[in-house]
Design a protein that fits this description.
The structure is a homodimer of 275-residue chains.
Chain A (H helix, E strand, L loop, with lengths): L2 H11 L3 E4 L9 H4 L7 H13 L5 E3 L2 H5 L3 H17 L4 E8 L3 H15 L3 E4 L5 H4 L9 E7 L5 H4 L10 H9 L8 E5 L6 H8 L5 E3 L9 H8 L7 E5 L1 H4 L7 H19 L2
Helix pairs in contact in A: 3-5, 3-13
C-alpha cells in the first residue's frame, strides 16, 4: 500500500486506528474454546474480532510472538489470519509486528518471509544492528519498514535515551541515520504513546514520517497528547495501535461486540482529532 | 544446560565450535532436491549436516530467518531439526538465533516459544528495548539469554559504537546494564569475530561471560585473534560459530563429508588454542 492510499483510507474512514491482534492462545473466550468442532480457536477468535472491528480501523497488527508461542501451528494460524484480512478487507494495512533485524544476508530472509510469504504491507524492525540489517527490508514496492525509535515500555529508558557527546539521544540518532536509508514513503517509526511530549522531538527530526504509536490503552498513553504533538495536518502521519484494550474488552460471549464498541469509541475520538 | 556442563563438553571434545544451521531452502545440494520422495528437503539436509559435524562441535545455532522464509512449514522443519539434535545428540547446546525482543508482556511469549515449545538451550535477544524486553527470557532453569552486544556486520558501527558523554560506547553500556539483570550463568553476549582487538574492551566489562562469536569464515574474522583476546583460561568462555563456511563447503554429493572436513579443521585449530 502506498502512502497516498493509506492517507486516503484514513480520511475516508475518519480513523487512524490500528488493531493489535496479540491473541494469547491461553486467553480466549470460553465460547471459542468450548466449541469442540473448532480446530483453530485462535483463528476463529481473530476472524470474529476482525469482522467486528474492520469498519473502525485502517490497519491490523498481529504481533508474531503470540503466534510463535504455539510453534508451527501458530504460524499457520497467523498466515490464515493475514490471508483472511487480505481477501475480505483489502483496504486494511497489515503490519507484521516482528521487531526483526539481523546481518544483511539474514535480514533478506526475514524480508522474504514478511513480504513474499506472508504478504503483509509492513514489518517492524529493530535498529541495533544498523544499516545492513534494515535495508534488505526496503525496495519492495508498496512495502514498508517500521523502525523502532522510542518504544512504549519502561525499558525504553535504558538505552534509547542515552545521549551522545553532542547531547543527541540514541532514538534521534536512529531516526537521523535511517533517513539516509529510506524515504517517508517506505519507512515509518515506532514511537510509544507513553512518551507524551517527546513527540515534539520526534517531529523535529521526522517531520514527514508516519509514526506507529503503541501504548494507548493498557499501557496508559494519551491519544490527545499524541495527536497534539504528533499529527501532521492534512496527512495525519499517525497509526495509533490498541491491542488488549480492544481484543480483550470482554471474555464473555459478547467479546466481538465489546471489541467493536471499544474500536468505535477510539475511532470516534480520532475522527474529532483528525485535522 | 548449565555453565559447568557446557564447559565440561568443551574440554572433553576439545572444541568450542558452534555450527550455524542457516539453511537457505533455495540453496540445497542437487542430491537433496532431486530426491522425489523427499517431502522435507531442508530437514534432510540438516540431518546429514548434523550427523557429519556432531563429533567436532558443542553447539548448533539455527537462525530462525531461514526457516521462517518458508512460512509455517519452515517452522515445522526447524522444530524437527531441534528435536533431532535433542534426541540424538543430547550433549549439544542448541541456540535459537532469533534476535527477539519486545515489551515484557510480549517477550514472555517469545520466551515461551523458545524454551517451552522449541526446547532450545538459548535464544539470542536484541537489547534496544531495554530491561523488560530481556528479563522475561531469564529465570528458566538451565536456559540462557545471548544478548547482542557488538555484532559482526558493517552496520554494527552505526549505533553500537556511539559513545555517551563519558566516552562509553553503546555496546559497553549494554553489557554493563545487562549485568544487573542476569549472571554469567544465564547470560552470554554476541561479539563478532570481525571486531578483533575490541575483545579486550569486552573482556574488561564482561570478564566471566561466555561470548557467542559469529563472523569466522565467510565474514572474515580470525580465530586466533578471538582466542588471544577473548578466551578465559580454564573456562574457555567462547562459542565460535561458523555457518556458511561449514554447511555450504560443497553443494555436490559430498556436501556432508565436506562439512565434516571444515568442522574438523576448525575443531583441530580450537584444540590447539584451548587453554
Amino acid at each position: 500500500m502506498t502512502r497516498k492510499e493509506l492517507i486516503d483510507n484514513i480520511y475516508r474512514k475518519r480513523s487512524f486506528l490500528c488493531v493489535g491482534l496479540d491473541t494469547d492462545p491461553k486467553k480466549l473466550p470460553e465460547v471459542i474454546t468450548t466449541n469442540v468442532t473448532n480446530d483453530d480457536p485462535v483463528f476463529s477468535f481473530n476472524k470474529a474480532i476482525i469482522d467486528a472491528t474492520a469498519p473502525y480501523c485502517v490497519a491490523y497488527k498481529p504481533n508474531l510472538a503470540f503466534y510463535e508461542s504455539m510453534g508451527w501451528k501458530g504460524v499457520r494460524t497467523l498466515e490464515r489470519t493475514i490471508e483472511y484480512i487480505r481477501v475480505n478487507y483489502p483496504d486494511q494495512f497489515i503490519i507484521a509486528d516482528a521487531k526483526r533485524g539481523d546481518i544483511g544476508n539474514t535480514s533478506r530472509l526475514y524480508a522474504r518471509s514478511a513480504f513474499e510469504h506472508m504478504g503483509v504491507d509492513a514489518v517492524t524492525v529493530a535498529p541495533y544492528m544498523g544499516e545492513d540489517s534494515v535495508t534488505p527490508f526496503l525496495g519492495y514496492e508498496g512495502k514498508w519498514v517500521i523502525l523502532l525509535a522510542l518504544t512504549s515500555n519502561k525499558g525504553s529508558h535504558d538505552f534509547q535515551l542515552i545521549e551522545n557527546k553532542e547531547g543527541t539521544p540514541l532514538f534521534e540518532s536512529v531516526i537521523e541515520k535511517s533517513k539516509e536509508w529510506g524515504t517517508p514513503d517506505e519507512m515509518m517509526y515506532v514511537v510509544g504513546a507513553t512518551q507524551g511530549r517527546m513527540f515534539e522531538d520526534i517531529r523535529r527530526v521526522a517531520p514527514e514520517s508516519f509514526l506507529l504509536v503503541p501504548g494507548v490503552g493498557a499501557q496508559g498513553g494519551s491519544l490527545e497528547e499524541v495527536c497534539k504533538y504528533g499529527m501532521i495536518d492534512g496527512q495525519c502521519g499517525l497509526l495509533v495501535n490498541s491491542s488488549r484494550g480492544i481484543i480483550y474488552a470482554s471474555l464473555n460471549e459478547d467479546f466481538a461486540e465489546a471489541a467493536a464498541r471499544e474500536a468505535r469509541k477510539l475511532s470516534d475520538q480520532m475522527s474529532k482529532l483528525l485535522k
